[in-house]
Design a protein that fits this description.
The complex is a heterotetramer of chains A (255), B (315), C (290) and D (407). Chain B contains 14 helices and four strands. With 315 residues, chain B is mainly α. In chain B, a hairpin with a 2-residue loop joins strand 2 and strand 3. In chain B, 65% of the residues are buried. Chain D folds into two domains: 204 residues, Rossmann fold (3-Layer(aba) Sandwich), CATH 3.40.50.2300; 159 residues, Rossmann fold, CATH 3.40.50. In chain D, helix 5 runs parallel beside helix 6 and helix 10 packs across helix 11. Chain D is globular. Classes of the chains: A alpha/beta (255), B mainly alpha (315), C mainly alpha (290), D alpha/beta (407).
Chain lengths: 255, 315, 290, 407
């Protein structure tokens, strides 16, 4: 529980004159669920974009399991096991639910170009295995019955769930969840929270969550880091954060 | 689902058999000459679609046909290289060029890519026109040798050319179909629909797009080279913007969403073009509005036609 | 190479860039609102020229009056095209490409067959040359440059200060937000098509006497206009297009004079491709699919 | 919305039917036909020339048939023209030629433009006489059944330069500004040699693209080299170029070397001073033109109104007349070997003038018909073409052979 999974060291990113992330240091421990919260425009999404490789930092380092992954492309980051979800359910809209899942197995495929082109035994076997695993994950997430639906027809809640299922299918070591509870009713929120916990406990996946639903965050996370104006203003267990002055000020100041 | 697939493969088999038996049933050089050119454009149109599914719309595929045609024609005219080898070399030349160009241009998306490829088609034509010491510019390359097997010259006989083009088309279609059906195809589709998400799932977008682009262009090069040795004449106008647009029409009018769309499109639109030639110079007056009408009623292409009937009868 | 030669190249480039601007401006407005590439836009230019030829040479109208009349007629045609064809393909790029090609073939062919095979010409209104900073060019071109500039400025002012113009800009920036504010999408796209078609017709009518009339004259101009607007930023408002057109004119002029005409065209296309590559993200990113 | 679409569809279908039905209903009459195929680009880049040629050929054939057709070997034939559109593409040209030969069994095919050359790959093995109209130098190379009665660029150049060297001695520096088609390419190859032959200095060549309309940059490149004579064609593009050259202060001469629309010269209107633009054309309506061409022009304008056909349309009357006369003389309509033999061994009286066949020394076959060269000048102040001299082919051909024949 104590060795670091991901370390952000002195991370900086600016858009023109605006400093979106400023000298951010953050350590994510292996096996924990870390909540990343902050007012709107605090730079949370930018942090995700930096980790996952959409942006290159102006300075600073990102270290994942001892390896410097600063400035890698998103697919290279994903290759190392860091998988993220997106704020607005981001799916492959014209593919079926099952095909959506199969995209995610891409990383685990060991059948090379020729073997998959020639439809070799190995690749067929592999695909069968992936399908089976995909169905398992869908069942686990409770949307197994929708496997042949086109994602475009799914209700919002299911789309978000599928987004998480896809991320899981990519065999992550670490998940970056971006507002997974947006637009859900309380019941759905509860289900989602318990599922995320289950993923964390049963599969030992380290998770970072960005979320505005404070109650859920407090319930879900082992630790919470608060940022504002791209700077970390507090870090600690939920109870500690709840009473932190700087945090209350940041949120009050916003509203 | 499974049944559907079986019907599809059965239909496919039937069409392939018809394709192979056609010259036996009906040895009509004119029809054969039309069909074998349609086969050439089918390859280009399906290639156009292969690039399209990765989210890139190209109006420049004829440029790669040109590369194949000029490479192979020039090699056979100047160095006596066998046209059979030329087919492969033409394809490889187009493929290599596409690989290099693809790595640069495929990073650009949306309408910019459309226009860059339009530029590409125009540049290639201008280039063949300009490089006169080698290509004879607008005079074209005359008397490009044809194919032969041992001492048998294909000559004026359309049948061997028909079979050759049929085989080339089947091979190209098979490869591109396999590619789309394999895990590579899923990655390509994923890129087309949401390349940010795909990239975050570990799919290297440039590499996969270049793969699709290169594959499509390789086959374009091969059929371009075939074209040169079949027509025995290579002219820059055949590989500029207008032919590229034609390829694109075949693909879109047929139905870009489905693998068989461009095939249907090539047959129907090219057949229509040929049929309308009885109207002589008035042909575009009918052809143009027909294209508009097809797209107005079938925005998903001709392949949507049976579906439409199916749905309306269901109601 | 002395200063005078360079000046001549600049003037030649500007003179062709100014006329390109009119076509490119209309095209980019239509793209900005309807989000389709109208490949038949060049045909509106061609139709404008033929319309002026028909009105001034056959019907005997005054040249300037003929241009205004042609602008109205072609704008009306544009409205029809928008209403029955393009509106339903708003932001659906793929089928609309084929639609515009069908339209292009139809318009070209009907002009060819409708006006006969012989060459047509519009009698120039202005004769004589002007010598400007040691470079001589025809008076006609100077006038065209001036009229084009006036038209473009009028469009800029319209977009900036008139209410319908502001609506166009609003929709170009954010269609959804604008429609929430009660701007009618349909009337904006109709207005855009009117402006675009009228500008293209004006360009055709203005250039008719200077160049020649040909039923295929639209496509080369369309190609260059496309290049100009991607250079300036597709769908971006006026500034980019003006810059883009002038750059195209200048590059073409310099490259032709310094290196030669055929290679100049290749260079022109290469430069555009190169610029697009180094600055793809600098322009508005357009998603291809709907 | 739906209704409009439906109406549109109905309209289009009826339009299609209206065009198609008359073709389908035209039944064959029980007369023997001499079929001539025309592999034309009725759509595409060369459509105007092809359509003009189609119309004027049809008029001519109608006239011949009305007079009872022609008699070959005791049998009366009507002439039937079969037009096939190749869309100005190579594959279209091959398909059209295949259709004409295979379905209609034609023995003579006319074509226009360079991509049409692709048809020779079909016509040669089928022993079908192919009448070409491309300036491409290799078009005839070792092609036994290919015939070209199309003014050679080389011959025009020689005739015009000879005229200029004799009559306009101040021309010393020559440059080439030409569209980049096959005649342009040919000109850029032959002109340096020709200029040297006539004691002129060749100072450079630039070929521009076919769609070019703005020549200011190109002229800014060429005019500082101070040419006295700009060699170009007499088409619309060249007229524009000439007009703009004068706007740019050019004071010298122009020489067109190919045929083109005479009306294109109107573009330069009064811009070019009288007699400064010379070309191998003839005003088809004027008295200077051969009688047959004059009559054709009249007939064409009666039927299709203003806008006289292009010069190129008349060229095809050469082909028509050649075929008509040759089959009569050969006494057969389908033995192409014999017809070709008769064709190349005789001298013919064609609309364009006396024509005989040459070319063995250059292309390996005698497939090139040579005819008189008309040297004309544009009189801008009167907006008309003035014929200066008709130079017989015999006066030009020896020079051609001396300079360009293969040793």
């Amino acid at each position: 529980m104590t060795n670091p999974m991901l370390e952000l060291v002195g991370l900086r990113k600016n858009f023109g004159g605006l400093m979106a992330v400023d000298e951010l240091d953050l350590v994510v421990r292996s096996g924990e669920i870390l909540g990343l919260i902050g007012p709107n425009g605090a730079g949370k999404t930018t942090v995700y974009n930096l980790i996952s490789g959409i942006y290159k930092p102006a300075s600073g380092k990102i270290i994942f399991q001892g390896e410097n992954i600063t400035g890698l492309r998103p697919d290279q980051v994903a290759n190392r096991g860091v998988i993220r979800t997106f704020q607005i359910a981001s799916l492959f809209k014209e593919l079926s639910v099952l095909d959506n899942m199969l995209v995610a197995f891409h990383l685990q495929s060991r059948a090379g170009f020729w073997r998959s082109m020639l439809n070799s035994n190995y690749s067929r076997h592999e695909e069968k295995r992936f399908r089976k695993r995909a169905l398992e994950i869908l069942d686990f997430m409770g949307i197994g019955s929708l496997k042949h639906e086109h994602t475009i027809n799914l209700p919002h809640g299911h789309q978000v769930t599928l987004g998480l299922a896809i991320a899981l299918a990519a065999n992550p070591r670490m998940l970056l969840l971006d507002e997974p509870l947006t637009g859900m009713n309380p019941e759905e929120v509860n289900t989602m929270v318990s599922r995320v916990k289950q993923i964390n406990q049963e599969q030992g996946i380290t998770i970072i969550v960005v979320e505005h639903n404070m109650r859920a965050v407090m319930e879900l996370c082992h630790r919470i880091a608060v940022i504002n104006f791209g700077k970390k203003i507090a870090e600690g267990v939920p109870d500690h954060i709840r009473q932190n002055h700087a945090v209350i000020e940041a949120y009050l100041g916003e509203s | 689902m499974n049944k559907n697939n079986r019907i599809k493969s059965l239909l496919l088999l039937v069409f392939t058999i018809i394709g192979f038996l056609f010259p036996v049933i009906r040895n009509d050089p004119y029809t054969l000459s039309l069909l074998l050119i349609i086969f050439v454009f089918i390859v280009a149109a399906v290639g156009f679609r292969l690039i399209y599914i990765t989210g890139r719309l190209t109006i420049g595929q004829a440029a790669f046909m040109g590369v194949g045609a000029y490479t192979s024609a020039l090699l056979s005219l100047n160095f006596g290289i066998n046209p059979w080898l030329g087919l492969l070399i033409g394809g490889i030349a187009a493929g290599i060029l596409a690989l290099g160009i693809g790595y640069i241009v495929l990073r650009v998306g949306g309408v910019y890519f459309v226009i860059i490829t339009l530029c590409l088609a125009e540049i290639s034509k201008l280039f063949w026109l300009w490089w006169r010491p080698v290509t004879y510019g607008n005079s074209g390359l005359i008397d490009v040798p044809g194919f032969s097997i041992a001492s048998f010259q294909f000559g004026i006989n359309k049948i061997p050319y028909y079979y050759l083009s049929l085989i080339i088309m089947l091979v190209a279609l098979f490869v591109m179909y396999r590619m789309e059906r394999s895990r590579i195809g899923i990655a390509l589709h994923a890129l087309g629909q949401n390349d940010v998400l795909a990239e975050h799932l570990g799919i290297n977008r440039t590499r996969y797009r270049v793969l699709a682009f290169t594959t499509a262009s390789f086959f374009c090069g091969v059929v371009g080279s075939f074209y040169a040795h079949y027509i025995h004449f290579v002219h820059p106008d055949q590989f500029g913007v207008m032919p590229s647009i034609m390829i694109q029409i075949y693909g879109i009018a047929g139905g870009i969403g489905v693998f068989f769309g461009p095939i249907v499109g090539s047959f129907v639109v090219a057949g229509l073009t040929e049929f309308l030639k009885i109207a002589k110079e008035f042909q575009p007056l009918i052809y143009g509005p027909l294209l508009v009408i097809i797209m107005l009623f079938l925005p998903k292409g001709l392949i949507g036609l049976p579906q439409m009937f199916f749905k309306s009868s269901k109601k | 190479m002395n200063a005078q030669d360079i000046l001549a190249m600049v003037i030649n480039g500007l003179s062709s860039g100014l006329t390109l601007m009119l076509v490119a401006l209309g095209l980019t407005l239509v793209f900005g609102i309807l989000h389709i590439i109208n490949l038949a836009h060049g045909e509106l230019y061609m139709l404008g020229a033929y319309c002026v030829w028909w009105l001034s040479e056959l019907m005997g109208f005054n040249y300037w009056f003929a241009i205004v009349l042609a602008m109205i007629l072609i704008a009306f045609l544009g409205v029809l095209m928008e209403r029955y064809l393009f509106r339903r393909f708003r932001a659906i790029m793929v089928p609309s490409l084929v639609v515009s090609i069908g339209l292009m073939l139809f318009l070209q062919s009907s002009i060819l067959l409708g006006t006969g095979m012989g060459d047509k010409e519009i009698e120039p209104v202005f004769h004589g040359q002007v010598t400007f900073l040691g470079t001589s060019l025809s008076l006609g071109r100077v006038i065209i440059g001036a009229v084009a500039t006036v038209l473009v400025i009028a469009v800029i002012l319209f977009l900036k200060y008139a209410r319908p113009g502001q609506a166009i800009r609003a929709v170009a920036q954010d269609a959804e937000a604008s429609s929430l504010q009660g701007i009618s999408m349909n009337s904006v796209s109709r207005l855009t098509m009117i402006i675009g078609s009228a500008l293209a017709a004006a360009a055709g009518g203005l250039l008719g006497p200077v160049f020649h009339l040909d039923y295929m004259m639209g496509f080369p101009v369309l190609l260059k206009a496309l290049l100009a607007i991607v250079l300036g930023g597709m769908g971006s408002v006026v500034g980019g297009v003006i810059l883009g057109s002038l750059v195209i004119g200048l590059v073409h002029s310099f490259a032709t004079t310094l290196i030669g005409p055929e290679i100049a065209e290749i260079i022109l296309f290469l430069i555009i491709a190169f610029i697009l590559l180094i600055r793809p993200s600098g322009f508005f990113g357009m998603e291809l699919r709907t | 919305m739906k209704k409009f679409g439906l109406t549109l569809m109905v309209l289009a279908v009826s339009l299609a039917l209206m065009t198609v039905v008359p073709f389908a209903m035209a039944k064959e009459k029980p007369v023997k036909y001499l079929k001539i195929g025309c592999n034309y680009g009725l759509t595409g880049v060369v459509a105007p020339a092809c359509i003009a040629s189609k119309r004027s050929l049809e008029l001519e054939v109608e006239r011949i048939n009305k007079k009872g057709g022609i008699v070959v070997g005791g049998q009366r034939y009507h002439i039937k023209l079969l037009f096939e559109d190749n869309g100005y593409t190579s594959e279209g040209s091959v398909a059209a030629a295949t259709k004409l030969i295979d379905r209609e069994n034609v023995k003579f095919i006319f074509n226009i433009g360079t991509p049409g050359l692709a048809q020779t790959s079909v016509t040669e093995p089928a022993k079908v006489l192919s009448f070409l109209s491309s300036s491409a130098d290799q078009a005839l190379l070792n092609k036994k059944y290919s015939i070209r009665v199309y003014p050679l660029v080389q011959m025009n150049d020689i005739a015009l330069l000879e005229y200029i060297s004799k009559n306009i001695p101040e021309v010393k520096r020559v440059c080439l500004l030409f569209k980049n088609d096959s005649s342009g390419i040919l000109n850029s190859q032959i002109l340096p040699k020709l200029c040297a032959h006539y004691g002129m200095e060749f100072i450079g060549d630039e070929l521009y693209s076919l769609t070019e309309t703005d020549f200011y940059p190109l002229l800014a490149r060429m005019l500082p080299r101070k040419p006295d004579l700009i060699v170009t064609d007499v088409g619309t593009g060249a007229a524009l170029m000439a007009k703009q050259a004068i706007e740019k202060g050019y004071k010298g001469f122009f020489m067109g070397t190919t045929l083109g629309a005479d009306i294109a010269w109107n573009k330069i209107g009064d811009k070019v001073p009288d007699g400064r633009f010379l070309g191998p054309v003839v005003d088809p309506g004027s008295k200077a033109a051969p009688r047959e061409i004059r009559e054709m022009t009249k007939r064409y304008e009666e039927k299709y109104g203003k806008g006289a056909p292009l010069d190129i349309a008349y060229l095809y009357h050469n082909y028509l007349m050649l075929v008509v006369q040759a089959v009569k003389k050969a006494g057969t309509v389908d033995d192409t070997d014999k017809i070709r033999d008769v064709m190349v061994k005789n001298t013919w009286d064609l609309p364009w003038g006396k024509t005989r066949f040459v070319g063995k020394e250059v292309w390996g076959v005698d497939g090139q018909g040579i005819m008189p060269v008309f040297v004309s000048a544009w009189i801008g102040s009167k907006k008309k073409i003035k014929l200066l001299k008709v130079i017989p082919a015999e006066d030009v051909y020896p020079t051609f052979l001396k300079l360009f024949g293969k040793k």
